Amino acid sequence: MSEVFTKSMARNVYYGGSVFFFLLFLALTFDTSQAIKKTDNRDAITEQVALGKKVWEVNNCIGCHTLLGEGAYFAPELGNVYTRFGNSTEAIIGFIKSRPVDGIPGRRSMPQFNLSDEELEAVAAFLKYTSEIKTARDWPPNIQG
Ligand code: HEC
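Above: the input record for the complex with heme C. Below: its predicted structure, written as tokens.
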């Protein structure tokens, strides 16, 4: 190799590097899109699940709870509450309806939201949906969330 770093050498490094990283970018984009396909269960997003997500947002459930790790740490993780409650939307509905349970010292209680039956069924369907999302690392790591 010559001692001098010529303009044409610099140009080759520039073009070669650009091509290399552009190809790497394409390969990683392809890899990501394949990985997303494996986790995707968007067919499970029904009208009811969409309404449930709205109920979830309007009532700011995430202000106290986490959902698949995101949110507040005041109340239990709900990404897998459907599994924790024995794969039962009725149990989730019953729980939300029965709050608050006061008078247990040291226990935090969830407020009453006065949701309609339709909203209760929808938010339970939404929590069932979240429990079926295939997260990359099987999050939450255990049944307690
Ligand atoms: C003000 C804070 C707060 C908000 C907002 C809140 N929760 Fe809760 N939630 C709690 C607390 C505290 C508990 C656990 C204690 C209890 O038994 O009430 C809980 C428990 C639950 C549980 C049972 C979890 C378990 O593993 O036992 C479900 C299901 C639930 N909440 C759903 C919801 C939904 C749906 C919303 C929105 C409509 C919501 N929560 C909004 C505080 C909150």
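Notes for the reader.
The two ends are 60 Å apart (CA to CA).
The mean pLDDT is 93.
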